[in-house]
Amino acid sequence: MDALTLDGNAVAGLLQEVFAVEMTTAIGTCDACGATDAVGALHVFRGAGIVMRCPHCDNALVTIVKDGTRVWIGFAGVRSLQVTV
Amino acid sequence: MEVVDIVAQTPRVKTIAFDVTGWPGHRAGQHVDVRLTAEDGYQAQRSYSIASVPNGTRIELTVERLDDGEVSPYLTDELRPGDRIELRGPVGGYFVWEPSQGGPLLLVAGGSGVVPLMAMIRARDAAGSDVETRLLLSSRGWDDVIYRDELERLDGAGLRVVHTLTRSQPPDWTGYARRVDAEMLAEVSPSPAEKPRAYVCGPTPFVEAAAAALVQLGHEPESVKTERFGPTGG
User: Fold this and answer.
1) pTM above 0.80, yes or no
2) Helices (H), B49-188
């Protein structure tokens, strides 16, 4: 396991900033293996941007890149996201 | 937010208290994001667990100094009472526990991973809860045990604190002296049949090993919540 691995809890603040709701309890479904997990349980790799990966099959679920004024979010690997409103 | 107090917990760990008048409250296990901005505009942001229970005017963070960290050496070495830094939160809803959720509770921490778990223990104590709680805390040596005196004081009345010291032990030490493993977890944990709520926090390899061992022992994966930190958390 890479020492740079964190989990979804580490990006709770960034996600809340973007979505304006608590996101670590949102349930994501991986488009590759179909596993469902709370966002807080996803693996997070932080480099130039953030990549959130499925803890079961390592599929890249979400990518986030931020500069001073904008955020780019890709959901390429997510089949669905269940958010409590 | 203004720093009001700084207390050394161990040679590498300090507790920093902030005045947060008007604080909306938080749940045990939640974080704040600390954002530092350099004169040239460069920003570094890190997430730190809140160690204290909500009291309306003050929160405490307990920060371990990571030698190659971007943020923690500033927080532990440079910050003084009266300084102001940017805090945002509380955030997070996954790795949280409230006394109303009940137990039994199994808390497993590596080093400063004890911080959010201490918030849970303090919330349990503040609520007068008698939820059966076990804390297994892995530290390098006796002098590296964070919150050592407070944990000794709270031990008992349904809370059992078990230490393992991985690198050095006092001469008369009779406790565990190795890394957390499945055998140790089996001895310390409530049985899977009691359906404990497990919270595991520490460096990534520690969390991976402890969470895998708990599932191997028969605990439901959904009941084992994890929070990892690593060098990028510093």
Assistant:
1) yes
2) 72-73, 114-126, 148-154, 182-188
Q: Please indicate, yes or no, whether residues B125 and B227 belong to a single structural domain of this protein.
A: yes
Q: Is the pLDDT of residue B208 over 50?
A: yes
Give A 5-44 residues with CB within 8 A of chain B.
5-14, 16, 22, 24-25, 38-41
CATH number at residue B77: 2.40.30.10
Residue B232 has pLDDT above 50, yes or no: no
**What digits encode the pLDDT tens for the residues B37-53?**
888 888 888 899 999 99
Model ipTM? 0.82
- B127 and B212 in one domain? yes
CA dihedral A55, B140, B95, B28 (to 10 degrees): -170
Q: Do residue B127 and residue B87 come from a single domain? A: no
Q: Are strands B133-139 and B159-165 parallel, antiparallel or unpaired?
A: parallel
Structural domain of B169: 99-233
CB atoms B225 and A13 under 8 Å: no
What CATH number is given to the structural domain containing B224? Answer: 3.40.50.80
Instruction: Over range B103-115, report the average pLDDT.
Output: 96
